[in-house]
């Protein structure tokens, strides 16, 4: 009889341990996804050739609790109630942005954009005279950033939707993890 009671207790104890471990794992996964990291699927071609349609990447949600977005960061933000966009930060609050003759100027200074080199070559081959069309000087208001896709001819970004409120930023893209053969850092 004692062996039977001991065996039943051991099974209950093991069941309790498994249940507790599973609950802790679920809580940790929820906290990590909510506050630290989240997966994101690239939809569309606005970030080509840096990021590709249907690539999966990890977004660092915690980084902007410690620092503000910086030019060059690739971020995910809430663009619409049901849709997030992924774009590159071009300028931050207080900066001025302007494009003249396919060249980006921040605060009146020319900014090199090496990530656009391949696009600019392809655009010229296809007969496009410019890759980024001119737009007038824009001053970025407080608590906002100016974002653009790397595929400037096919991107809905701050040139159309205006500066983006920092409060809508989900996080910074850190690395792609799918497809497996294309795993890489996004910065």
From TrEMBL:
A GO MF label: serine-type endopeptidase activity
Active-site residues (renumbered): 46, 87
Catalytic EC class: hydrolase
Gene Ontology biological-process annotations: signal peptide processing
Residues in coiled coil: none
Domain Peptidase S26: 15-178
Catalytic reaction list: Cleavage of hydrophobic, N-terminal signal or leader sequences from secreted and periplasmic proteins
Bilayer topology term: Single-pass type II membrane protein
InterPro entries: LexA/Signal_pep-like_sf, Pept_S26A_signal_pept_1, Pept_S26A_signal_pept_1_CS, Peptidase_S26
EC number: 3.4.21.89
GO CC term, one of those recorded: plasma membrane
Domain of life: Bacteria
Intracellular or extracellular location(s): Cell membrane; Membrane
Chief location category: membrane
Transmembrane segments: 21-42
Keywords (A to Z) from UniProt: Cell membrane, Hydrolase, Membrane, Protease, Transmembrane, Transmembrane helix
Family recorded in the similarity comment: Belongs to the peptidase S26 family.
Protein name (record): Signal peptidase I
